[in-house]
Structure formats: C-alpha cells, structure tokens
Amino acid sequence: MKWFYRVTLIIGSFILILSGILIYAFKIEPYRLKVTDYVLSQRQSDTLELKIVQISDLHLKATFNTHNLEKVVQKVNQQKPDVVVFTGDLYDNYAQYHDDQRVSQTLRQIKTKFGKFAVYGNHDYGGGAGQHYAKIMARSGFLVLRNTSKTITLLNHKKVLFTGLDEAMLGHPAISAMTANKRVDYRVLLMHEPGMVTQFLNYSYDIALSGHSHGGQIKVPGLPIVNQKILAQTALAETYSQGWYTLANNLQLFVNTGIGTSHVAARFGVVPEISAYHIYI
Predict the structure, then answer these.
(1) Residue ranges of the Calcineurin-like phosphoesterase domain (predicted)?
(2) Domains assigned to the chain
(3) Is this structure's pTM higher than 0.70?
(4) Pick from 133, 92, 130, 32: which is nearest to 262 by CA?
C-alpha cells in the first residue's frame, strides 16, 4: 500500500501547488503595482530633468474599479511627475461597466507640472466607449491626442513635442506634415499598439511609448513557445511585447505591460507597472 500513499501525496501536493498558483494569479498579482524608473539621457550642465510617468491599460471593471484606481493615482503622484501619459484602454468593456463621474474625479487628482496626455486604445472605441472616452479624459484633466500634438516648454526654454496617434485597429493613425516639420528639442510619440511603430520610423522621434500587450499577462516560466502563443492572441503586440526596443533611426520604443487585465482577470509573472522616464534635455 506504500505506492498508494505516495501517489496520494504526489497528487495532494500537486493540487496544493496549483491552488496556490491560481490564488496568486487571480487574487494577488493583478492587485500588485510596481514603479520602474528609467534614465534615458545623461545630466549636463545646461540640461533640466523632464520626468514623464506612463500608465496604460487600466481596464476598469467591476472587480477592478475606482477603489483600485485611487491606489494607482496615489502611486503616480508619489513620483512627482512633470508629465503623465496614458496610452489607452480605460475601461475593459464600457457596455458592461462604467463609472464615468468617479473615474474622472479620481483621475483629476493626478498632479503634474506641464500636463497630462492620453491616446485612444482599442477598448476606448468598443462597447460604446468611443462616444464617451474623450469627454471622460477631458473632465479628468487629460488632453486627448488623436493624431495631434502638444508642445511644452521647459524652464530652460527647451521644447518637447508630444504626439499622440489614433488607435490602429479601429481608428486611423497618422502624423501631419506640420507636426513632422516642427522644430523642437525632443520628441515623444504616444501610441496604444506597439506593432504600429514601424509605420512611423522616419519621423525623427526620440522615444515611443505604448501599451496594449500586457506583456502577455500570463508568462509561464520555462515555456517560451506557450508565452509566444499567448502573445499572438493580441494583435499588433507579437513582435514588441514588453520593455525596451531600439529601432531604426535610433528610435527607442518602450512597451508598458499595463495595470489591468482583459479576457482573463489574472496575471502571472507580469506585475502591473507604472513607468517613470527621467530625461535630461
């Protein structure tokens, strides 16, 4: 009967481990939040620091609502940002859940020196969200950049251009000739889907910030093929899925893995993140 007890012990251990993984993936990791700092240029005697904080893919829903959003806002404000950018997907499904007034009240509490900019994500069009997203963000103090740009001037008179692209799958991303020829000291390109960056490599931007991929949301250790198949389920995220990429013309692309969840309300190995970029201009 020893074999029976051994098999029982193995099965019991497996069930305990699997239960622990599922509890962590559904109940713990989605509610964690890390801040990652990146220094993108070296301080010089004639430069000033510009601190850009990026949030992405909130995917607000009944199980991740304004109570959770308040914690995100608190964490963002702790960074004392000069600029905050949101790279799309405010609600997970507007038709199923929305709380526009409280969402705007909460996002409005984000404080910056030079402004808050947002772009559309694919979920900001779907579920009826397209009729409301721009108004919600405007009431939140964000300027929505939809194939448009905004220039800020730093205290040393250096000019920084922020261009926001329309969402790729349901919108029509483009950059105008006027924007392309604008004379500034630094250029930031904001987009939702990282895969669309290849269409805009010849526009002399210094960095491009995106989201959308969630880093796959579920990353199984030691199984890269499985993780790639998971990523393949998200259009325009298969090639650039997480972190930094150096592209043509020295464009630096960063893919933020987002804060919320979609399809499955779980994260494993991809902790929700806020990105802070320190740029000396």
Answers:
(1) 50-215
(2) 32-280 (3.60.21)
(3) yes
(4) 92
